[in-house]
């Protein structure tokens, strides 16, 4: 087996791109199809899900440690930017948003949150827009919560507060003459 590039310890928070933030609860050895495998056992509390990832596959599936403080600051800074809404078909945009969320990249997830956020004075979102917005916000909030050692609702409120302030600034620019 190749040398492990990534190594996680029991108790570490990790990000699994398709599922978000989980915690390594155990390192297991199992024999599967006649081969000895070392597995990380990950627990995702919110989904009440346990996932086993072979240690030699952790890097190729995109599993990583929590983001650095620098990346977190960059993601929160992204939220303050002006939303970019492409004029392509919703189905195409939805696919792009899902790909960004599942990439596990914090800044990409923040872009989705920023682009789909609607302030109270803006038009209502469609059901599918709201679903993607909530998925992205939850993913971002869980990583923020794990990094700042707060609960998810607190992290989510921090994100929404940043978005509301940014929306107030960007909406001032659009005051009719």
TrEMBL record:
Q: Which domain of life is it from?
A: Bacteria
Q: Which InterPro entries match?
A: CarD-like/TRCF_RID, CarD-like/TRCF_RID_sf, CarD-like_C, CarD-like_regulator, CarD_C
Please list the residue ranges annotated as the CarD-like/TRCF RNAP-interacting domain.
Answer: 7-117
Protein name, as recorded: CarD family transcriptional regulator
């Amino acid at each position: 087996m190749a040398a492990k590039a990534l190594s996680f310890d029991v108790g570490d928070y990790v990000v699994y791109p398709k599922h978000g933030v989980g915690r390594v609860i155990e390192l297991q050895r199992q024999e599967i199809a006649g081969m000895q495998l070392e597995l990380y056992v990950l627990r995702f509390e919110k989904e009440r899900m346990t996932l086993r990832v072979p240690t030699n596959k952790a890097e190729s599936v995109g599993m990583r440690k929590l983001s650095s403080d620098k990346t977190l600051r960059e993601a929160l800074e992204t939220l303050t930017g002006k939303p970019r809404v492409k004029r392509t078909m919703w189905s195409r945009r939805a696919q792009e948003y899902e790909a960004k969320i599942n990439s596990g990249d914090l800044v990409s997830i923040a872009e989705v949150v920023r682009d789909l956020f609607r302030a109270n004075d803006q038009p209502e979102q469609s059901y599918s827009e709201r679903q993607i917005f909530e998925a992205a916000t939850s993913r971002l909030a869980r990583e923020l919560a794990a990094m700042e050692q707060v609960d998810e609702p607190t992290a989510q409120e921090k994100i929404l507060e940043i978005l509301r302030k940014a929306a107030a600034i960007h909406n001032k620019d659009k005051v009719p003459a």
